[in-house]
Automatic annotation (TrEMBL), chain B:
Residues 1-76 form the 2Fe-2S ferredoxin-type domain. It comes from Hymenobacter perfusus. Keywords: 2Fe-2S, Iron, Iron-sulfur, Metal-binding, Oxidoreductase. Pfam families: Fer2, Fer2_2. This is (2Fe-2S)-binding protein. CDD domains: fer2 (cd00207). GO terms for molecular function: 2 iron, 2 sulfur cluster binding; metal ion binding; oxidoreductase activity.
Length: 747, 156
């Protein structure tokens, strides 16, 4: 039996086969298939809400889901104003349609913030349209038409009807603008924990993810990329590979044509790949082993930048085959040179000259790989006329224009369907793998799913940059802080946020940055700069507190008081009250000063990024001779919390992620080649290393939501570093900490 | 042609017997609930039951499964209401959800063999399953909850 005839027969036998129709029904909540089935029955009221005549109400989620629970939390905002029974609604991932559904960008802790107003307005508008339709039909004033859980009522005439019965009429009405929205005290959906709308599908293994997508006749593609940064394809011999069963084609695939103007998220590590296409994943994997490939140093190359990233310009990408040792030496050299001034207050040089004590410390952080659990992949079916793309992507609105240019197709002929993502962390904002899939499909004239192996994924990265920073503090004879200096650098970007705390709290302040050009591709990584800063700076503040004879929380609060009452300089981009608020909350909740907690090696850190504030107290113990974070207390101010239980889950996850990265995360290079290739040499935190308890507390306020994906992550590093200092009796300046703890003299 | 029994159903597949069970499940049979994470028995995303044992299907040749009983996440419970699945929902464990089929399959074997696992038992049994989103605390709690409900139901 051929594979195709097998597919057919087992489909007839109903053999659990994933054809495109079952793919669609994967979006159907269990038991609701019948309601969903009749196509064309849905009446679209606006882009976000569809209702059937028999009153099934569907809310479309605009933003791609990668585990931060937008698929539940964003529809909650609509439901709040729409007035529907949350238990009965159907939630579906919306199509890519920026005109109807807004920016549709998942990243930068932006989803809640960006959609907070538009989604509630959309819900309120639909409700108003339904009321208007009912009022017209019943010939009563619209003000007298009330709603409750998907029903319309007119008390005086005792008329009632479902939303569904007026859906068509409502859809023909103009969309009202400027709707008055509920005050937080009147919320009935928002700020009430709601279960993940896809929970049932997740625990039953439904095909939710891009890598799960299949179509009849679909081929599998994989790509060999150069074995190191700075390398390129020289030649190949595919004779043996092509003889392998199921293999269709082997070819070179270029991504961007020369001079292609890269914007937004067009970063790619290698512009030419060696592609193998075949019937099944395993066949392609086997054929790859038979390829005879020659790679060569690429030398210096040029990238054309522009489109959304400043004016059109040429950038030289250095050809050097980099190694971690050389990078560290190089960073040391750069750190000693003059750097770009990013902010200056007062006269830091004089203050340092006159200081009674100067404390200086340098911290390092390595490249970090995202290691999303689902490796990069995308489905593409591209013909001369149109393109269908299905898969995991954070920024469809950025990728679509790129695709239109690369494929030379009008944007309206490109359909991008966004699947649930097996993690993102910033990695899937860079849609090169989607463009690769599209070009491969066009070349082989067939629907194709491009899949990266774990090794491909780890060694073809858009990594968190490699960073270093030197902090200096000047104390006068009274041990008061009179000057603060940070000079940070990175490959290829520096990490410094010059206007963040403690800027604004110290009279004499200097922030500087320097950068070393590199061919190693870097990008978003759960607040890449912040997560390094929050480690280095928060660890330094701890040392400073010790030198000043102060409690670390008290020192921070004093500085914040200064920043609030008598701020130094302009553009301090944090709110000192909210910052102090999380420190006080974590102090109280963790029993910071309670004697019974003295048995723990405790570390505290707080940080502001992506518009929200987070503080953690980490309680470390020694377990089997190794430091172990047993408990964590977290205090978060992200404004109104949309879905408290899901938000708690995300903070707990960020804490675990932070502990894992602080102890184990790190990528090294040798002659351009990434030395870690899979989870046996890139260590991720595992169950037994996760804390027993992570106690999460949110500041209760009515501030519009300010985001949560990134903010809880960065300060974990600092809190771990500070606890480790207590546990080990010495301070560690090089991330990750784990490898240094395994030497006999470390502890 | 290989004869397989997966989730109590008989299948015939025409694949190289060396093919890992994972890819037969995913590519050939469309049972994509079993996930690929590493391909080298490091992450547990591909965990299935082979004659009741938790195995990493990415390193299990399909030939080893011939004539044996394979259970995947799709067949763990007919109505997807295994105590472990219910506990996972009750505590809303998942973030991205990608690792969770593997976590659930590992946890189900643990609970069959150990009705009342300690935290140390849980940590040891689950150490082979990575969750990149860091849902470990909820996984532990869900396993404890499933253990309790299993014992209460008297089938434990
Ligand atoms: S995919 Fe099998 S253990 Fe990772
Ligand atoms: S929930 Fe995302 S990897 Fe576990």
């Amino acid at each position: 039996m051929t594979r195709r005839s097998f597919l057919k027969s087992s489909a007839l036998a109903g053999g659990g086969l994933m054809l495109s129709f079952t793919w669609l029904s994967a979006f159907t909540p269990a038991g609701r298939e019948k309601e969903m089935a009749p196509g064309g029955q849905w009446v679209e009221i606006n882009g976000y809400v569809k209702i059937t005549p028999d009153n099934v109400i569907k809310i479309l989620n605009p933003n791609p889901e990668f585990g931060q629970n937008v698929m539940t939390s964003l529809p909650m905002m609509i439901a709040e104003e729409l007035d529907v029974d949350w238990q009965k609604i159907v939630v579906e991932m919306g199509p890519h349609d920026n005109a109807k559904l807004g920016p549709q960008f998942t990243g930068g802790s932006n989803s809640m913030r960006m959609y907070w107003k538009p989604l509630r307005e959309a819900g309120a508008a639909v409700r108003q349209m339904l009321r208007t339709a009912a009022a017209q039909a019943w010939a009563v004033p619209v003000e007298e038409v009330t709603t409750k859980a998907g029903m319309l009522h007119h008390a005086k005439s005792r008329k009632s009807a479902t939303y569904g019965s007026f859906a068509s009429q409502a859809a023909s009405l103009p969309v009202p603008k400027g709707m008055k929205l509920k005050a937080p005290k009147d919320f009935t959906v928002v700020s009430r924990s709601k279960k993940n709308v896809e929970g049932q599908k997740i625990v039953s293994g439904k095909p939710l993810f891009g890598i799960d997508y299949q179509q009849p006749g679909m081929l599998i593609a994989m790509a060999e990329h150069p074995p190191g940064f700075g390398m390129k394809l020289k030649s190949f011999d595919a004779t043996e590979a092509l003889k392998m069963p199921g293999i269709k084609d082997v070819f070179r695939q270029q991504l961007y044509a020369e001079g292609f103007e890269q914007g937004g998220f067009d970063t790619r590590s290698f512009n030419e790949l060696l592609v193998v296409v075949g019937n099944t994943t395993w066949q392609v994997m086997q054929a790859r082993k038979k390829l005879k490939v020659q790679w060569e140093p690429a030398g210096d190359t040029k990238d054309t930048m522009g489109g959304g990233r400043g004016p059109k310009r040429e950038v030289v990408v250095p050809g050097e085959l980099e190694s971690t040792d050389a990078q560290l030496r190089n960073m040391k050299d750069y750190a000693a040179k003059p750097a770009q001034q990013l902010r200056r207050d007062g006269d830091p040089e004089t203050a340092f000259k006159n200081a009674a004590t100067v404390i200086e410390r340098t911290c390092h952080g390595p490249f970090l790989a995202h290691n999303c659990m689902e490796p990069m992949n995308f489905f593409a079916h591209v013909t001369d006329e149109k393109a269908l793309l299905v898969g995991p992507l954070q920024a469809p609105g950025w990728t679509e224009p790129t695709l239109a240019k690369v494929l030379n197709l009008p944007a309206d002929k490109i359909e991008i369907q966004m699947t649930r993502m097996g993690g993102g962390f910033g990695r899937r904002a860079y849609g090169h793998y989607l463009t690769e899939a599209a070009l491969i499909s066009r070349k082989v004239k067939a629907p194709v799913k491009l899949v990266y192996t774990r090794e491909d994924d780890m060694t073809y990265g858009i990594y968190r940059p490699m960073y270093t920073a030197t902090y200096r503090a000047a104390l006068d004879a009274n041990k008061d802080l009179i000057a603060f200096h940070v000079k940070g650098g990175g490959i290829p970007e520096h990490p410094i946020h010059a206007n963040r705390f403690p800027a604004g709290a110290v009279d004499n302040y200097l922030a500087e940055g320097w950068e070393i050009p590199s061919n190693i591709t870097i990008g978003a990584f759960r607040a890449p700069r912040s997560n390094f800063n929050a480690a280095a700076e928060q660890s330094f503040l701890d040392e400073l507190a010790e030198a000043m004879g102060k409690d670390p929380i008290e020192l921070r609060l004093e500085l914040l008081k200064r920043a609030k009452e008598n701020p130094v300089g302009k553009n301090n981009d944090y709110d000192a009250d909210r910052y102090a608020g999380i420190l006080k909350l974590v102090r109280d909740k963790s029993g910071w000063n309670q004697p019974e907690n003295k048995k723990y090696s405790r570390g505290v850190a707080a940080y502001f990024c992506h518009n929200s504030y987070a503080a953690h107290v980490v309680d470390m113990v020694m377990r089997d001779g190794q430091p172990y974070v047993e408990r964590v207390f977290s205090a978060i101010d992200c404004g109104i919390v949309i879905n408290p239980d899901a938000a708690t889950n995300m903070v707990q996850g960020a804490v675990v992620d932070g502990i894992g990265n602080a102890f184990y995360g790190g990528l090294t290079l040798k002659n351009g080649a990434v030395e870690q290739t899979n989870f046996y040499n890139y260590r991720l935190i595992r169950m037994h290393e996760a804390p027993q308890k992570i106690d999460v507390h949110f500041v209760q306020n009515d501030i519009d939501p300010t985001g949560l994906g990134e903010p809880p992550f960065p300060p974990v590093f600092g809190a771990v570093a500070n606890a480790l200092y207590k546990a080990a009796g010495k301070r560690f300046y090089q991330q990750p900490f784990g490898p240094q703890l395994n030497t006999p003299t470390a502890l | 042609m290989l004869n397989l029994t997966i989730n109590k159903k008989a299948y015939q597949v025409d694949v190289d017997p060396e093919t890992p069970l994972l890819w037969v499940l995913r590519d050939t049979l469309g049972l994509v609930g079993t996930k690929y994470g590493c391909g080298v028995a490091q992450c547990g995303a591909c965990t299935v039951h082979l004659n009741g044992e938790a195995v990493r299907s990415c390193v299990t040749k399909v030939s080893r499964a011939v004539g044996q009983k394979v259970v995947t996440i799709e067949g763990l419970a007919e109505k997807a209401d295994h105590p472990v699945q219910k506990a996972w929902l009750e505590l809303d464990v998942a973030q991205c959800g990608y690792c969770q089929s593997g976590q659930i399959m590992s946890a189900a074997v643990l609970l069959r063999e150990n009705k009342n696992p300690t935290d140390a038992d849980i940590d040891a049994a689950m150490a082979g399953n990575i969750c990149r989103c860091g849902t470990y605390l909820r996984i532990r709690e869900a396993i404890r909850l499933a253990a309790t409900s299993q014992r209460k139901a008297g089938n434990g």
